[in-house]
Amino acid sequence: MTDTDMTLAAVDSGPEAEAEGLTPGQIFRQRLFGHTGFLIGAGLLLLIALIALLAPYIAPHDPFQQSLANRMLPPVWAEGGNPDYLLGTDQNGRDYLSRLIYGTRVSITIGVGAATIGMLIGVTLGVLAGYFGGWVDHAISFLLTAQLALPGLLLAMALVFIIGPSIWVVIGIVGVLHWTYYLVVTRAATQRIRSLDFVAAAAASGATPRQIIWHEILPNLASSIIVIFTFELGIAILAESSLSFLGVGIQPPTPSWGLMIAEGKQAMFYRPWLVVLPGICLFLLVIGANLMGDGLRDITSPEGRSK
Amino acid sequence: MTRLLDIQGLSVSLPLPNGTLHAVRDVSLSLDQGGTLGIVGESGSGKSMSALALMRLLPRGADCRATRLALAGQDLRDLDDRSFTRQIAGPRIGMIFQEPMTSLNPVYTIGRQMTEGAVMRGLLSGAEARRKAIDLLDRVGIPDPEGRMGQYPHQMSGGQRQRVMIAMTLMLDPDLLIADEPTTALDVTVQAQILDLLDDLRRERQMGMILISHDLAVVAERSDHVAVMYGGEIIEQGASQAVLRAPAHPYTQSLLQAIPQLGDAPARLGAIPGTVPSLMSQPLGCVFAPRCAHARAECTAARPPERQHGPDHYCLCVLTTPPTGRRMAEPLRAHAEPVGEAVISARAVSQVFHSRKGLFGPKREIKALNKVDLTLKRGETLALIGESGSGKSTLARILLGLATPTSGEVTMLGRPVAELSGAERAGFVQPIFQDPYSSLNPRRRLSEIIARPLVLRGEKERADQAVRDAMDLVRLPKRLLHAYPSQLSGGQRQRVAIARALVTRPEALICDEPTSALDVSVQAQILNLLDDLRAEMGLTCLIITHDMAVVHQIADRVAVMYQGRIVEEGATAQVLSHPSDAYTINLLAAAPRFETKPEEIEVAE
User: What is the largest CA-CA distance in chain A?
Assistant: First the structure.
């Protein structure tokens, strides 16, 4: 006994506890605030989210208010600009800045909504395929192959055409078409985690598959799911823009960036700002989401690549 | 003899996100032509780093300094990277790595990989290189070398790949061969063959060899000089016989006492308290002082001086005469209990795995277990020994009820295991796994991990107290209650895994290689702990291992597995001293051991 006691005393006062006293949470926070890309991305997204929330308070005009006297005004810095309309007006004389601000709401709603629907479908299927394997895996992999073989945009157009366009339909369809990435990643990760000993230890303690998935596997998938979510957010926003541009997405007069680009395209050569301004908004939102996704991937990876 | 390699004052530091890691500090080594230098140390002691520094294979950003770095008189520090790669790495110094499964490129044939280096350097023509490669493959003992030239690495076993790796290094006729844990990933019988081969080749070619290993027995057997590394420093070096027979440094002494010895009556192991030091800050004094039983004030004040303890035996320690108070061998606490009734038994258990190449490929059958009979009786410790792929882990999963055998029957407490509910099984038997890094969920705190089996049984209310009791049992300090696994060392993690297994107060444990991922000193702590637990709780244990010395240390009875069958079974003493099966005899002969018995480890003058 004396031998073990001595061992104990020394383990207790071992130097490693003090040296590595940071909890994973503290290390995570340290990495979070040391990552420039992540900070820029998160800052952009936060700003855009605030604009969407506070749209009624910050928009200078009613986005639906037409004023035929003030059609196609250029932005204030261009020749003929009107200080009342900072970013000019569109074909129907509606204030472009207000429409861009309200358009943020549509883009964010669709991005978050569609990415969430895709996540629910993809993660569920991925975990099931990875955990149970066998014929479940075969069936889900077949579904994945089938989905990947479908021309996404064409299918989305057809579906919107059949069901009828509305923002909820667009969210649903974009979401239902964007789950493959989640599935591929979570399936592989689940297969790997499933073979680790702590899963076997849980099974040997009488845990059911459901308990193992919720308690042992999902927490370990969380970081990769968050990363994919930010990527899919950008992709879904672009998909909405494409659909709106093609005329089967958001319907006028609802302001949406994609729709605004579509409406501006006839006058693109004479009034380029009609296309450029919503394009810049779209770019900022997508790059914000991607930077944040990249950052999260770096921060949550074990080696902690910090830039 | 001429001096082949001379390293003086080698230091390596690595920049990490949270500081600088001083991996190697002021290391001086030398090696004569045709000699063997063994470098031993626990993980993180800097032994591989020193070799990588010599080969200029350090991770990017590493800072490497030395006052002298000479190969046969030529100072290597003067060479730029380009000429180093052309002239030294390969033609002068060859290196063999630990993992034969990953050190060959899977997309090229063996022939191409072997001849590439020589042809690219313009040393040999294609045809000459091919002839030489075939000769060398033949020399390292690969059957049908010509046919093998066209094969890919995956078509060979691990031992064969390591042979190919050796042959490949020899293609350029190096003067110095660095073998970094060349046999750690291999089975014991293969290990002996590979080490013999390296020995023969070294003698034939008058090569110098650096053998890096964590296994003292391997180094003791195979090298004439030994350097013992700890915490990035060489704390003792000299002739193997002197260092390992009469160690002068307290660390080397404790390390030798921590190893279970085959030739001796099993006794408590001399575990070294504490854990390997963090190398993030350079210690002012002796690097071993915090764990040293003989530490005094001056140890932490300044670096200890180098003292000579014999014609060729140096040691970094303040003590002028090495400590002599050798710990008396303490008997094991657990006694061979009068063995009770059978608690888990397997009758004619077979397991067949089917695999299929692709969706429509032909079916293949792999027989992992072939009609195995095994009985675990109450109160005993049964060791199941065998090499990788012999089916021992598959059998463990079946005995735990985690897998269903293709045929045969497993009974637990007299009832078929399939009839028992998960909770009943869990209440009786719990597993402990090999790799403490994968057996704990990295996203959960220790308190949650240890309490989990209780929560699953719906005994949440008594979890708090039970967790504390279990932590006491495995000697884990309470302050770790809310730590995450990533904050613990390997030995602490294995204690957590044992605490989780014991929290439901099971009567039996099935331990799958419980110490093979751990360092020698930590292994001693865990083996002593298992001894304590047997004495205190009367546990029934099934221990799966590949290490004969561990069997000898802990088991009452042993079963030897080979290719899915049990080839020999009996009392440990009986099987180890008078093995009857040819395979067991082989296995015992191959196990590396010290030529000396511990009683002979006397202290230097």
Answer: 96
From the list B274, B330, B400, the residue facing A204 with the nearest CB is B400
pLDDT tens profile B10-40 = 999 888 766 788 889 889 988 988 889 999 9
Distance separating alpha carbons of residues A292 and A231, to the nearest angstrom: 9
Contact A233, A243 (CB under 8 A): no
CA distance A132 to A138: 10
| Both tokens assigned to B317 | 């320690």
Instruction: For the beta carbon of residue B581, count every other beta carbon within 10 angstroms.
Output: 15
Residue B140's H or E segment, with its range, is: none
Range of A169's domain? Answer: 98-292
Listed residue (A250, A204, A212, A219) closest to A111, CA to CA: A250
Pairwise CB contact (< 8 Å): A205 & B452: yes
Q: Please answer whether residues B518 and B491 qualify as being in contact, where contact means their C-beta atoms are separated by less than 8 angstroms.
A: yes
Spatial distance between the Cα atoms of A246 and A263, rounded to a whole number of angstroms: 10
Q: Give backbone dihedrals phi and psi of B66, rounded to 5 degrees, phi first.
A: -155, 150
Q: What is the CATH number of the domain that holds A113?
A: 1.10.3720.10
Q: Tell me the residue type at B45.
A: S
In a domain, A50, yes or no: no
Alpha helices for B417-546 (secondary structure H): 422-428, 446-456, 463-473, 490-502, 520-537
B523-581: per-residue pLDDT in tens? 888 888 888 888 888 888 999 988 888 888 888 899 999 888 899 998 888 888 888 89
Residue B522 tokens read as 């930590």
DSSP string across B546-597: S-HHHHHHH-SEEEEEETTEEEEEEEHHHHHHS--SHHHHHHHHHS---SS-
Q: Is the bond preceding B477 in cis, omega lying within 30 degrees of 0? A: no
With 0-12 CB in 10 A as exposed, 13-18 as middle and 19+ as buried, what is B589?
A: exposed
0.80 cut: is pTM over it? no
B429 pLDDT more than 50: yes
A90: closest CA among A273, A282, A280, A283? A273
Taking an 8 Å cut-off on Cβ atoms, the answer to whether B273 and A10 are in contact is yes
The DSSP output letter for B43 is: T
φ/ψ of B228, rounded to 5, equals -100, 120
- Letter string b/e over residues A217-232, b meaning 16 or more CB atoms within 10 A of that residue's CB: bbebbebbbebbbbbb
- List all residues 6 or more positions away from B553 whose beta carbon is below 8 Å from its beta carbon: B260, B266, B269, B527
Tell me whether residues A197 and B439 touch, CB distance under 8 A: yes
The predicted pLDDT at position B178 comes to 92
B5 phi, psi to nearest 5 deg:
-130, 135
- Percent of chain A at pLDDT > 90 equals 15
Answer yes or no: is A307 within a domain.
no
SS3 A161: helix
Helices (H), B58-144: 81-83, 110-120, 126-139
When CB atoms are compared, the residue of A10, A23, A201 closest to B274 is A10
Interface with chain A: mutation pick from B272, B397, B445, B456, highest number of A CBs within 10 Å: B456
Concatenated DSSP letters for B299-340? Answer: HHHSPPPEEE-STTEEEE-S-SS----PPPPPBPSS--PPP-
The total number of structural domains in chain A stands at 1
Q: Would A287 be classed as within a structural domain?
A: yes
Shortest alpha-carbon distance between residue A72 and chain B (Å) = 54
Question: Nearest chain B Cα to A211, which residue?
Answer: B456
Residue B141, CA distances (Å) to B8, B195, B350, B426 in order: 37, 13, 34, 48
Using a pLDDT cut of 70, give the percent of chain A over it.
89
- Give me the residue from A3, A15, A219 closest to B268, CB to CB: A3
Q: How many CB atoms lie within 10 A of CB B33?
A: 15
Query: Is A92 inside any structural domain?
Result: no
CA distance A198 to chain B (A): 4
